[in-house]
Design brief:
This protein is an alpha/beta fold and about 120 residues long. It is built from four helices and five strands. This is MlaB-like STAS domain-containing protein.
Length: about 120
């Protein structure tokens, strides 16, 4: 069996308020299960004010299944009042993410206060 061509390094800020997911390698269909688990675990604390940063600097490529998971992460962050950012996209990965709006104009960012804004709008 061949070793996977992808991995996710997870680092957590000492206060636990920020989780960094560093995507490394080719994130195609085979990697979607691992990315789904990584995203679920990053949001697992459910604490208000949590910030998740997905760093794609070392991602060589990204497939539609993984792009979909990144979009789901953004939606989840907005709904739960978490911060969310996809950072350091370049090359083919940036082009793929730009088609969905995930990195345009610079980075997609769901500020931690988004939930408060949603409550104001619906009031």
């Amino acid at each position: 069996m061949e070793d996977p061509r992808y991995e996710i390094e997870r680092t957590t800020h000492k206060t636990g308020s920020t989780v960094h997911l560093h995507l490394i390698g080719a994130f195609d269909r085979d990697a979607s299960r691992v990315l789904r688990t990584g995203m679920r675990d990053a949001f697992a604390s459910g604490r208000r004010g949590l910030r998740v940063i997905v760093d794609v600097e070392r991602a060589e490529s990204i497939g539609s299944e993984c792009i979909d998971l990144l979009m789901v992460g953004y939606t989840r962050a907005l709904r739960a009042g978490h911060g969310y950012e996809i950072s350091n996209a370049h090359g083919h990965v940036r082009q793929a993410l730009a088609l969905t709006g995930l990195v345009e104009p610079d980075t997609l960012y769901a500020p931690v206060w988004a939930d408060d804004l949603n409550r104001e709008i619906s009031a």
